[in-house]
């Protein structure tokens, strides 16, 4: 799935080919046997389903896929997308990425992915529910969904509503399964979902960027000060991931000077008001002609603006050998899956840019999905057991300080200090810790092996070694 034609002289590899090349490049830097590397690359289960659904146009045959890439850990985990451009090769590539993404952030899942080949704009909500439930039933019949087997999540074209339909369908087939809600994540909070899941990928991107920009040596090499504050950014894509990334970057003090979409971009060198831009999009159906910003007709041109950080948060193969020489960003933060081709990456690295790879940077979604799965299995909301205990302990501490000093804290200050952690606080704390720890592990891999010169290779080496260790511990490769 790509919206970018192959430039002259560059053979545009498929998304799956790009993923496998990255795996092969990293695998060659390990001492793992070929058979084990071959097992790590290949998809364990590929299921294609075709089923009839009655629509306003009559009966239609709908096609869908579910791929479980790796069973080194169970359940398998990965989103379901609704896209007319979906095909089996794309789903296999996304499932493989999920395996390595989960390993990088130490989330104990194998990788999986699913897709239904439709343009959801052509169907009513009732028809979409019918399609979703029938697809779910086909997976259930094939033992391809369940809290201990395979746990889907939202992806492109799906959201909390579709996940609720899947959970309800699974529960209807398994009325005695007390953990039935754990069969899928990304559900509405009222249906067993978790606070913070919607914005998790964008928040995780900014947490990962924050950690990367703390490295004073890397920033000095780029001619930039440490930290996100004061830097400029361009965000390509203004869907869920792009919007939240831009929002959290702005909150961190980064000046978001441009946002690009498929039909154009808006630019303001002084910085865009991201919340106002979102309201404009909701009101008009487009980001274009946003008051106070300059509109350009070709959104791809915005990626070539002079900025510190470029966040491609749309589709794969958006940065190619054709536009890479003109990209001026010092940091490429991959919010989308596979936005940079292999040849483009070589050009950017030769220019001295830092590429923070998708396989690490957009792992926030699966990390918070893991928290939701744990919540469903434990049957208790995070924070419910200890929030009030923490709050009262902090209050006693402040009271003791006031007694000994004779000074009283202001009510606003007291409330801020004594606030016990609730679910969203714990989710965000866990996500931040996950992204920091994973980035440090990637840098440690680079530090140990002088042959590794870029973060993507280091990330894949780290994840491949973890997956290999799991297979060896299972006794698959004695």
List keywords for this structure.
478 residues, 16 helices, Rossmann fold, seven-stranded mixed beta sheet, 15% strand, single chain, five-stranded mixed beta sheet, globular, alpha/beta
Task: Explain how this protein is built.
With 478 residues, the chain is an alpha/beta fold. Among the domains are: 43-191, Leucine Dehydrogenase, chain A, domain 1 (Rossmann fold); 200-361, NAD(P)-binding Rossmann-like Domain (Rossmann fold, 3-Layer(aba) Sandwich). It is built from 16 helices and twelve strands. The protein has a seven-stranded mixed β-sheet with strand order 9-8-7-6-10-11-12, sandwiched between helices. A five-stranded mixed β-sheet has the order 1-2-4-3-5. Helix 6 packs across helix 15 (423-448). The model is unreliable at 1-8 (pLDDT under 50).
């Amino acid at each position: 799935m790509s919206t970018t034609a192959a430039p002259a002289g560059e053979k545009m590899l498929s998304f799956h080919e790009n993923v496998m090349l990255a795996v092969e490049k990293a695998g060659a830097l390990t001492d793992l046997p070929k058979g084990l590397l071959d097992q790590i690359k290949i998809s364990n289960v590929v299921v294609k389903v075709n089923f009839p659904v009655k629509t306003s146009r009559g009966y239609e045959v709908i096609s869908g896929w579910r791929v479980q890439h790796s069973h080194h850990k169970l359940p398998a985990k990965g989103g379901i997308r609704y896209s007319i451009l979906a095909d089996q090769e794309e789903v296999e590539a996304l499932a493989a990425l999920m395996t390595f993404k989960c390993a990088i952030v130490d989330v104990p899942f194998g990788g999986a992915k699913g897709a239904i080949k439709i343009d959801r704009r052509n169907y009513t909500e009732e028809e979409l529910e019918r399609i979703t439930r029938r697809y779910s039933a086909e997976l259930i019949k094939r033992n391809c969904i369940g809290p201990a087997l395979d746990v889907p999540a939202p992806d492109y074209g799906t959201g909390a509503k579709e996940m609720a339909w899947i959970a309800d369908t699974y529960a209807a087939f398994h009325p005695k399964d007390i953990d039935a809600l754990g069969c899928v994540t990304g559900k509405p909070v009222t249906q067993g979902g978790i606070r913070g899941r919607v914005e998790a990928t964008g928040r995780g991107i900014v947490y990962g960027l924050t950690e990367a920009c703390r490295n004073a040596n890397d920033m000095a090499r780029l001619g930039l000060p440490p930290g996100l504050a004061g830097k400029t950014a361009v965000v390509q894509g203004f869907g869920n991931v792009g919007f939240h990334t831009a929002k959290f970057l702005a909150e961190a003090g980064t000046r978001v000077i441009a946002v690009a979409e498929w039909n154009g971009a808006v630019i303001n060198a002084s910085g865009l008001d991201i919340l106002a831009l979102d309201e404009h999009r909701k009101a008009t159906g487009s980001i274009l002609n946003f008051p106070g910003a300059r509109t350009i007709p070709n959104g791809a041109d915005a990626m070539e603006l002079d900025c510190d950080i470029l966040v491609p948060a749309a589709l794969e193969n958006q940065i190619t050998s054709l536009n890479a020489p003109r990209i001026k960003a010092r940091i490429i933060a991959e919010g989308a899956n596979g936005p940079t081709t292999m040849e483009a990456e070589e050009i950017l690295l030769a220019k001295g840019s830092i590429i923070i790879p998708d396989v690490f940077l957009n792992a926030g979604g699966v990390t918070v999905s893991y928290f939701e799965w744990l919540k469903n299995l434990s049957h208790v909301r995070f924070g419910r057991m200890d929030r009030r205990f923490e709050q009262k302990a902090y209050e006693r501490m402040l009271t003791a300080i006031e007694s000994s000093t004779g000074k009283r804290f202001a009510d606003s200050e007291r409330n801020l200090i004594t606030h016990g952690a609730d679910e969203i606080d714990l989710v965000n704390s866990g996500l931040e810790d996950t992204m920091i720890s994973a980035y440090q592990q990637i840098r440690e891999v680079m530090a140990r092996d002088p042959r590794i010169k870029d973060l993507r290779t280091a990330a894949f080496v780290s994840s491949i070694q973890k997956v290999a260790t799991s297979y060896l511990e299972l006794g698959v490769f004695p």
